[in-house]
Amino acid sequence: MSSLAGRNLVSIFDLTNEEIEGVFRLADRFQSALRETGPLAVGRPRRRTAKRGQDDPASLRKVCAGQVLATLFFEPSTRTRLSFEAAMHRLGGSVVSVAEAKSSSAAKGERLADTIRVVASYANVIVLRHPHEGAALVAAESLDPQRVAELGRMVPIINGGDGSHEHPTQTILDLYTINRDHGKIAGLNVALCGDLAHARTVHSLAYGLARFGANLKCISPPELSLPEYVKRRLQAEFDCVPEEYDSFHALAMPPRRPGRKRGRRMGPLVSDSELAEAVTSQVDALYVTRIQKERFRDPALAKAVRASYVIDGALLSAIGRHVTIMHPLPRVDEVDYAVDADTRAAYFRQASYGVPVRMALLALVATAKTPPPAPREVVAHVKCGNPTCITNHEPGLEARMMRVPEVGVLRCAYCEQEQEARQ
Known about the structure:
The chain has a five-stranded parallel beta sheet with strand order 7-6-5-8-9, with helices on one face. A four-stranded parallel beta sheet has the order 2-1-3-4, sandwiched between helices.
């Protein structure tokens, strides 16, 4: 496994499969050590090994001793912020935090890049959550070689979620959960259900699952299907074409060519023999997301599709005992509370894995005096058409568009949204 010291984690693509598996192994060791200190994830137990080094609970407090984590959260968060802060405290470090945009100088109009350049002098690692797609990349690029030389060290930027773009650390703990439950990821059938258009957790997870060889089944209202730029990248880079359905019942229908959608069949889920057979044979893990109403440009649409898909007792009675039911949380009304008591419900242990996984990430990216990677090549200077892209909100920042010659479009380096390449 190559060193992650001093490296940014802006996208799930910043890590290789081998590096992600290395995070899994270290998270396993931290999870084992945490069993001695609590509180813990109530997951499926792993065989214990002899303690040594970082496996010793007392050694946890030395891993990041003297280091400071800055958590800058310009959007609400419970699990991501608190698990990162708990992880740093467990490793013996300390935390400084901005819990909301209005409590920072962003409320006075300060540029994000300026905020990052200042906070980097206070901290060894920065975790950023921001409402605009591409904000994490702006943060990483703001620590250019000159600023790194002034600081005398690298200050890694970790993306805690940038708009509806990506959430790479959530993806790592999601993959970790699936791997612990099933002992593998390759060859599994994973269904992504709900708001696939706006859920950044789904976008990063789709890439991660495809890279590890899982099969994707997307279940959503047509208005909330996986974005075209995500599907295009899945096919181009991983030869992965997700199967798309508008309901669980569509799984029981005769197969059709990948990438084509059926007519819409809305309504609550019910149990029948066809559905039971189809879901049991075609789904190993079910990843559910809420309707991301805060990201809808049309509030009426958010209201119209709310509660379109509900995981309830009827579905539980139809699916196999091996299916892992996951949710990044918070949930609203897409998972019935009665599901919580079922052993297939993994979302609370999934959330608790956030501590050992983020402990592993923090331990691995500990500051290093290495130069940052060279900036990406600027292919074209064109305004990005995505209104929530960071380039349309950060003063002095120009969009960087990269050509995708296979389809004749431009892709924004910050938010990945695509638009027609004008001649």
